[in-house]
Write a structure and sequence with these properties.
The protein is an alpha/beta fold. The protein has helices at about 1-5, 20-25, 40-50, 65-70, 80-90; strands at about 35-40, 55, 75. The chain is flat.
């Protein structure tokens, strides 16, 4: 995983020129192995349109029911349960 992450720059970091770090990371992945984590129905729809599995986090203004209705495979209330998130992200 380190080799994939080496070239990723956070979009607010100096010199990043507003790169999309998620796009760079996903270039070496297949849709079947990728997971998008998002917190809005737009995130869910974008992930589904890209053919990836979506795990939604209801930490923003969107309710868990709205995220499920948008099509998220899994919805969590927050990121506090690290073990559960790792299971969801790794299959």
């Amino acid at each position: 995983m380190r080799s994939r992450a080496e070239g990723i720059l956070h979009r607010n970091s100096p010199g990043s020129r507003r790169r999309r770090p998620w796009l760079h990371c996903c270039r070496s992945s297949t849709p079947e192995s990728a997971v998008l984590v998002g917190d809005t129905p737009s995130d869910v729809r974008g992930g589904l349109a890209a053919g990836v599995r979506v795990v939604a986090v209801a930490t923003g203004r969107t309710t868990p029911d709205e995220l499920r209705a948008a099509g998220a495979a899994e919805v969590v209330n927050d990121l506090a349960d690290t073990d559960r998130m790792l299971r969801l992200l790794t299959g």
